[in-house]
């Protein structure tokens, strides 16, 4: 099945209307604009302004005149992202405008509404909200629509099952995205990987009949160079270290790093940021067959480092190692790596908060500030130098899966850092890529993490100007 890239989703765009219905957002007090009858109706309905509470107000003719949305308290809002996204599903069909929010709250509220319009409907019809929003005054509608479209692309790619999203299909999706924006594509497939110096990418994918590949996309001719590297393991059985069924059930999302950098790439290209973009996706399936790589095998990476395999289920860092080494050869201004890499990150921070790793203090500060600003949480974790010895097996330069199980996300990050030696600014993101249960603006299923924070930080990080 061919995945439609950036399908038309009216519910994820802003509407236009000469006289949109007002949505009054309030912490409790009823707006003065209400008629006495509407205020009495709201009180009779028990409207208190609690977060997410909705009350539709009638007109004198029996139609819909307006609605109230409870904004709750600072304490309740602190426990929820995109709370206004609830209104998109709760309100009746119509075009609405937000009234009552502070200027600095409008962008998050408007974006949350757009994100609530997402539904994955490739295999079955899925309901989308019929309530549409007029873009609030002072908010950049085109920017938010580009962000929403990029997030929708990420969700679509992750949600598509592995039978329809293998390495070839992921390559096809990248080509289609490139065609949308006039970008260039280069793919290295199958045994050509060995000829071109990507032995770890080939090794991880060699057991599958679906040939492994390294897909490269380039866009832009001026400005600083940004390289995005995304883990594209389209399904991960664990290899010979086979995962139990309970751990294998969500492995269609193991290409969530690739999906997220592609969503971010769309945002960057759609907004025509003044930079040179390079995207690298090692796309493989980690399968089981007589050709599968084995525990205690040793391979020489593109970087020249020898790698001992102590767990075939730690395959993501292997394919990323070759891709990062390739990225590093150009010494770009910034390399960002995104991967659904370790369960240890989820144990430490749960599904909502991805850790990121960088040695660059200014980059770390910019990412942390942007994450808070755009409600796209990130948390910095350390490249803890004393743990370096954990990834040094003695028989080879580096170990892909240190024994003991402790600090698994940190040791994975240290492993990846070994392959970036020529580029001064580097960050790695250990994302989950999945929303376990529906939340405002985020239905259950695939989800982007970190892309909006990165986008918001690029102006400062790369000096792109106003």
From TrEMBL:
Domain of life: Bacteria
One Gene Ontology molecular-function label: aminopeptidase activity
Pfam families documented for this protein: Peptidase_M17, Peptidase_M17_N_1
Keyword Membrane listed: no
Family under the similarity heading: Belongs to the peptidase M17 family.
PANTHER family: LEUCINE AMINOPEPTIDASE-RELATED (PTHR11963), PEPTIDASE B (PTHR11963:SF20)
Protein name: Leucyl aminopeptidase family protein
Species in which this protein is naturally found: Thioclava kandeliae
């Amino acid at each position: 099945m061919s995945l439609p890239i950036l399908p038309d989703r009216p519910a994820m765009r802003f509407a236009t209307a000469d006289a949109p219905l007002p949505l009054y957002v309030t912490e409790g007090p009823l707006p003065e604009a209400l008629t006495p009858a509407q205020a009495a109706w709201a009180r009779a309905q028990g409207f208190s302004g609690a977060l997410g509470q909705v009350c539709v107000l009638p007109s004198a003719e029996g139609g819909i005149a307006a609605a109230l949305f409870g904004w709750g308290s600072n304490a309740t809002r602190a426990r929820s992202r995109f709370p206004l996204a609830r209104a998109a599903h709760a309100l009746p069909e119509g075009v609405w405008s937000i009234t009552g929010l502070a200027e600095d709250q409008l962008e998050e509220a408007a974006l949350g509404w757009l994100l609530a319009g997402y539904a994955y409907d490739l295999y079955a019809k899925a309901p989308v909200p019929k309530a549409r929003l007029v873009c609030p005054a002072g908010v950049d509608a085109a920017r938010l629509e580009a962000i929403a479209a990029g997030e929708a692309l990420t969700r679509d790619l992750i949600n598509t099952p592995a039978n329809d999203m293998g390495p070839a299909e992921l390559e096809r999706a990248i080509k289609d995205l490139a065609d949308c924006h006039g970008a260039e594509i280069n793919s290295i497939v199958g045994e050509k990987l060995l000829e071109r110096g990507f032995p770890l990418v080939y090794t991880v994918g060699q057991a599958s009949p679906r040939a492994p590949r390294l897909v490269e996309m380039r866009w832009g001719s001026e400005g600083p160079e940004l390289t995005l590297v995304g883990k594209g393991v389209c399904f991960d059985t664990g290899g010979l270290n086979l995962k139990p069924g309970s751990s294998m059930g969500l492995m269609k999302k193991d290409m969530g790093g690739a999906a997220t950098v592609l969503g971010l790439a769309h945002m960057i290209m759609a907004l025509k940021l003044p930079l040179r973009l390079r995207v690298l996706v090692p796309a493989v399936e980690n399968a089981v067959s007589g050709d599968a790589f084995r525990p205690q095998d040793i391979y020489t990476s593109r970087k020249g480092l020898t790698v001992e395999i102590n767990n075939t289920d730690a395959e993501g860092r292997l394919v990323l190692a070759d891709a990062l080494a390739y990225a590093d050869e150009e010494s770009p201004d910034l390399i960002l790596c995104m991967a659904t890499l370790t369960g240890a990150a989820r144990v430490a921070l749960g599904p909502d908060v991805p850790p990121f790793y960088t040695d660059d203090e200014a980059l770390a500060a910019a990412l942390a500030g942007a994450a808070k600003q755009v409600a796209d949480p990130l948390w910095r974790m350390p490249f803890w130098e004393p743990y370096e010895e954990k990834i040094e097996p003695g028989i080879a330069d580096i170990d892909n899966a240190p024994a003991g199980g402790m600090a698994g996300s940190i040791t994975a990050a240290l492993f990846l850092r070994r392959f970036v030696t020529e580029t001064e600014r580097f960050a790695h993101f250990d994302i989950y890529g999945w929303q376990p249960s529906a939340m405002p603006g985020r239905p259950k299923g695939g989800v982007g993490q970190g892309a909006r924070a990165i986008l918001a930080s690029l102006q400062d990080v790369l000096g792109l100007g106003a």
